[in-house]
């Protein structure tokens, strides 16, 4: 049956408003139904025209069992690039279930960077089988990429690129492109790299510079001799920072001997940047960033448990402070009622400071050059807000318990705790950063321990002195 | 004095390791010294060869006073694109101090999207003066961009682009580029837009497709008829999502009548994406995202105060629960000592769930299609960890206070609170999202109120029943 475009219009085709396609619940149910029935024709009808990104989103929404079934039903028509658009967990879910022949077919049709991402997700035995089935030239290139460390530029890079000697003219390059034909050029490219006979990078000619040059101009006359490049062994996150800072669209990747081995493009880097942001957010919330990659219930529960255990210890430290003042609490139960306000407000204020500090460290806006200025600014903010909240809490507490003395006591404790929290909120992340620990992961429990201990400690000490307790 | 490259090598020139340049403290001090002395020659020597991104980073590190002085000392050699690389606060700092003549010169040399960003930062009177001094054609284009809402695609877009009719051949386009010369083409471009006589977009030919086509091929034979486009009035954040989802490098911008008016490129979008991530992180930490844009101490203090006030209210709610159990606390002070452990652990556990939920909502991984599944998963994790921490805390508490009954009491309270926290941590962000409030901003205080009230409430109620208190 020939595909009828009117009939097979999916929600993914409507971009008139520039919005992304959202896969409707009905559409997903339709696909699930067709998969359950093993109706390959209907699956083709529904899914055949989807953009790879929408196909990826669809795969995420399907059940574990349905995912590999969809790939099988699509057969040779399945677009393997869709596997680049799903999370690692979903990808491995699918790859696990696919026969080696399907994998070989899939890897063969992918660009080198995507092929590497697929191969990474395979068991060593399957990886070897797939590699062995590929033509020697492809195999060598993919093996070399896989030899680079995980998350390195070498894994992310595209190994097909266009390089030419410096004495070629613009006209000659254009003739070369036309003769070359589709298969021998990368699917998408932005530039021609100018290299010497040893493949050392001399410069870059972007396509827009190439097309506006006269035919007789030599490449070395129009190339940009930008020295920005990335080592293949370097971490992808470092490369991402370079893209971000210098607004790059692509950057050459070189090996240890400065030979050109690939190119990193912005679309891969956007994913790295987004992942970094996710990791920072999750770490600040006390969640292991790896969690997003797994659906394994017990793994998640255990990972959350680990971080909560650290907090448990800090909670017992706080309780020890309270236990130390047991006598005073018995004598004046209002202290037990009001204590959490002092501790909690300090914790929230310190969390504000800490969040600003962690973010500024990540974006490199907080450096040694301005750290002292920012520490003083945060201390001043802590003092101002400490005074303000001290005043408010003092008035409320004194009236609530009909005890005038409680006013100045809680006000002073509040002021002390907000200043201490401000100091802890900025110094702790700075210290972790200096010690090369990720401040987003480590700062939280430390900072709240400070505000809990100082909050309860200051409040109960000041109260004991004022009211002559204990 | 001719510039000697050996002498003026700045740290910014070393990219051999692919790392970004870090401006050394010594270098910044040198620049500051030269500015203080008004030594234009020395400033040129030090700063003249800096990349715009590094010049921007340098401006951020200088004092308020030194920033506009640097621009003046550099005169016509100052690269205005550096102002795109600094925060809004710094940019306005500088623009405020610059004479209108300098501004006019600067705006004239910028690409349209950057010029719009500069004009946005000016006072209405100055903006009009600068616009009036520009050639009519530029003025009209910039005015139109400024008419679009703030942060819209129309403000971010580049208004110079290459468009051609569908019947032009690849060869004719290449000839056109060569005849056109530098000035009449955009500084960087990736594609030729194919338009009808009314400037309606028919398709796109990327340069790599153009250069591999035979000269006689018509554009409409090689163009991609992708319907993805962005309305100029649309929010930049929506456009960013499109780029991210479909790995785009550029996207056409159309006006209300579907006419091509500009192009959005990935380098602008990367900034939007990074800003979104920053906003989410700061919001989760209880910080107003606008804060990063200002150095105004009182503004920051007041903005932090506002959010802390909300938390203050929730702290008093918690205290009211404690006050309700005043009698029981007096009878058994151990409850006052242990209560914060139950409340705190519930709060931390709920924050984990909330962070995962907020992130998944932002990345659209959490949708109506899988919400129920995720709610049950979080409840199960809360129950498992509640049971585990209940057991541990129970054993510790019973031994610490030599009171066997405290064991089951705190264990049951802990379990209850972690389950309640899990429910709150996922349902609260989902509810805010549904009500079109930003869940990152609003969820925190709600969720911790739940765990505080349930934590203290459950612990003290169970204890009262078990020990027959009150």
UniProtKB/TrEMBL annotation, chains A, B:
**Ranges of residues in domain CBS:** 223-280
Q: Recall the GO molecular function terms of this protein's record.
A: magnesium ion transmembrane transporter activity; metal ion binding
Membrane topology recorded in Swiss-Prot or TrEMBL: Multi-pass membrane protein
Q: Which InterPro entries match?
A: CBS_dom, CBS_dom_sf, Mg_transptr_MgtE_intracell_dom, MgtE_N_sf, MgtE_transporter, SLC41_membr_dom, SLC41_membr_dom_sf
Family matches, as Gene3D superfamilies? CBS-domain (3.10.580.10), MgtE N-terminal domain-like (1.25.60.10), SLC41 divalent cation transporters, integral membrane domain (1.10.357.20)
Instruction: State the UniProt keywords alphabetically.
Output: CBS domain, Cell membrane, Magnesium, Membrane, Metal-binding, Transmembrane, Transmembrane helix, Transport
For this record, an example GO cellular component is:
plasma membrane
The places in or outside the cell where this protein is found are:
Cell membrane; Membrane
Q: Which domain of life is it from?
A: Bacteria
Q: Which family does it belong to?
A: Belongs to the SLC41A transporter family.
Quaternary structure (record):
Homodimer.
PANTHER family named among the record's database cross-references: MAGNESIUM TRANSPORTER MGTE
What this protein is called in its record is Magnesium transporter MgtE
């Amino acid at each position: 049956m020939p595909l009828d475009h009117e009939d097979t219009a999916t929600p993914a085709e409507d971009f008139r408003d520039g919005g992304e396609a959202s896969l409707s619940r009905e559409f997903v149910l339709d696909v699930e139904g067709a998969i359950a029935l093993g109706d390959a024709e209907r699956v083709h009808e529904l899914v055949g025209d989807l953009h790879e990104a929408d196909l990826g989103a669809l795969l995420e929404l399907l059940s574990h069992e349905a995912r590999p079934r969809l790939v099988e039903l699509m057969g040779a028509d399945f677009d393997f690039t869709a596997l680049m658009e799903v999370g690692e967990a979903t990808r491995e879910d699918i790859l696990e279930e696919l026969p080696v022949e399907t994998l070989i077919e899939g890897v063969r049709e992918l660009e080198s960077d995507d092929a590497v991402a697929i191969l990474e997700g395979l068991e060593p035995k399957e990886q070897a089988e797939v590699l062995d089935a590929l033509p020697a030239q492809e195999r060598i290139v993919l093996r070399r990429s896989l030899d680079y460390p995980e998350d390195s530029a070498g894994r992310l890079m595209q190994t097909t690129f266009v390089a030419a000697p410096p004495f070629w003219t613009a006209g000659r390059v254009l003739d070369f492109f036309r003769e070359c034909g589709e298969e021998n050029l990368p699917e998408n490219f932005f530039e021609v790299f100018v290299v010497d006979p040893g493949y050392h990078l001399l410069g870059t000619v972007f396509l827009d510079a190439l097309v506006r040059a006269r035919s007789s101009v030599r490449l070395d006359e129009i190339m940009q001799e930008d020295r920005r490049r990335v080592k293949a062994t370097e971490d992808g996150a470092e490369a991402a920072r370079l893209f971000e800072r210098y607004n790059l669209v692509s950057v050459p990747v070189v090996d240890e001997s400065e030979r050109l081995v690939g190119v990193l493009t912005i679309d891969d880097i956007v994913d790295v940047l987004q992942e970094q942001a996710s990791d920072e957010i999750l770490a600040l919330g006390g969640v292991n960033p790896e969690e997003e990659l797994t659906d394994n219930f017990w793994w998640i529960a255990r990972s959350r448990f680990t971080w909560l255990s650290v907090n448990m210890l800090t909670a017992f430290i706080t309780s020890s402070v309270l236990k130390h003042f047991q006598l005073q609490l018995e004598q004046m139960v209002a202290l037990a009622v009001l204590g959490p306000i002092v501790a909690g407000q300090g914790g929230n204020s310190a969390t504000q400071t800490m969040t600003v500090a962690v973010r500024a460290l990540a974006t490199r806006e907080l450096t040694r050059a301005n750290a002292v200025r920012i520490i003083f600014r945060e201390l001043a903010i802590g003092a101002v807000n400490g005074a303000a909240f001290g005043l408010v809490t003092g008035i409320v507490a004194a009236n609530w318990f009909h005890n005038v003395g409680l006013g100045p006591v809680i006000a002073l404790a509040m002021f002390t705790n907000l200043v201490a929290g401000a100091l802890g909120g900025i110094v702790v992340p700075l210290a972790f950063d200096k010690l090369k620990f990720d401040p987003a992961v480590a700062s939280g429990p430390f900072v709240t321990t400070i505000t809990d201990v100082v909050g309860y400690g200051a409040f109960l000490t000041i109260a004991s002195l004022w009211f002559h307790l204990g």
